[in-house]
Amino acid sequence: MIRTTQYWINKLQLLKHPEGGYYSEVYRSNEFVHKKNLPNRYSSFRAFSTSIYYLLESSEFSAFHRLKSDETWHFYEGSAINVLMIFPNGEFKRIAMGRDAEANEVYQAMIPQGCWFSAHVKDADSFSLVGCTVSPGFDFEDFEMGRKNNLISLYPKYTRIIEQYCR
Hints:
Layout: H1 5-11, E1 15-16, E2 22-28, E3 32-33, E4 46-47, E5 50-57, E6 62-67, E7 70-78, E8 81-86, E9 92-97, E10 108-111, E11 116-121, E12 127-135, E13 143-145, H2 148-154, H3 159-164
């Protein structure tokens, strides 16, 4: 059986994600970290951890965004995926995720909190299925979509990449 994009969307009950692609929450811890025990960047309590399935088609991209928590991506299925990161200090990093160790692809990638990041599928006419684990747990209040002009003014040497992967 060929497992297509539509197969995974149906099987995992994926919904459209604001950054591009599709997602479904798999896990949200029933335990929470109290606000007083979190850094000041959080406005209220957070679950210990959350995780989602995330599917990206090659015709789309995950637009530059950042979180207040660390996020670990786990590669599962499909074509390799490139994760692009711009760190607050201006450093740029590209991580190829996939099954081909000889091509330096990895199964996991960690995106530190506060880092702008984007992703795109490596091969045309394909998709990538990954998992994303966030700790402390994800809350849309902690999600910031990148604004093209703002990011270009902060990181002008990455203008071409920002224009390509920002909405």
